[in-house]
Amino acid sequence: MKTRAHWDQVYSAKATTGVSWFQEHARQSLELIGQTGIAKHAGIIDVGGGASTLVDDLLDSGYSDITVLDLSAAALDLSKTRLGDRAAKVTWIAGDITQVDLPRSAYDVWHDRAVFHFLTTREDREAYVRAVLHAVKPGGHVIVATFAEDGPEKCSGLPVMRYSAEGLYAEFGAPFTLVEQRREDHHTPFGTIQKFIYCMCRTASN
Fold first, then answer.
1. What CATH number should be reported for the domain holding residue 98?
2. How many domains does the chain have?
3. What end-to-end distance do the CA atoms of the chain give, in Å?
4. Which residue range forms the structural domain that includes residue 193?
5. 106-122, pLDDT tens digit by residue?
6. Nearest-CA neighbor of 42 among 105, 86, 113, 128?
7. Which residues, other chains included, contact 92 with Cβ-Cβ below 8 Å and sequence gap of 6+?
8. Exposed/middle/buried for 13, CB within 10 Å: 0-12, 13-18, 19+?
9. C-beta separation of 95 from 77 below 8 A
10. Is residue 19, in this structure, part of any structural domain at all?
11. Tens digit of pLDDT for each residue in 51-95?
12. Domain for residue 116, yes or no?
């Protein structure tokens, strides 16, 4: 799969601190997850979590049921190495979110920072939303961040979609209730600024 090979190459060739999306701490994501009020044993999935440090901070915060999914096994291996013995506390899934078979109603929180904007076809975006509806519990929270309308047009050499908060929410539609939206100026390791939009929604209770 071309995109899988692309991301394996990226993570094999560059230090995790040298990619444009690197965050020492994913503060916006941590704040939004905290705002959901979920219990520490609640299920959280970080889609496209790869080598992100969000899993470290979730473990540090006491969350105990964490799944990290990424297309790149190389990215997941970097996180496992960084976590050491703590990696055994996490469920790791190497797979394409538009195709992977996730357990039904398994997660209280679905988090995705910067996967959805790589889905440039309607078919892939619809498959993603079906995966959310299948895997998130009724009344669960869905936190998705993408490049904003004034964000980059490409990332890592690949085309991306850019969204307003309203446009991003519209991709999910009626089964979801918008809870919060916010913007972020992400400062890359190269001294540039990337504009992001975050939307937190909630699925229907039944």
1. 3.40.50.150
2. 1
3. 37
4. 2-13+24-203
5. 999 999 998 999 999 99
6. 105
7. 67, 68, 69, 76, 79, 80
8. exposed
9. no
10. no
11. 889 999 999 999 999 999 998 888 899 999 999 999 999 999 999
12. yes
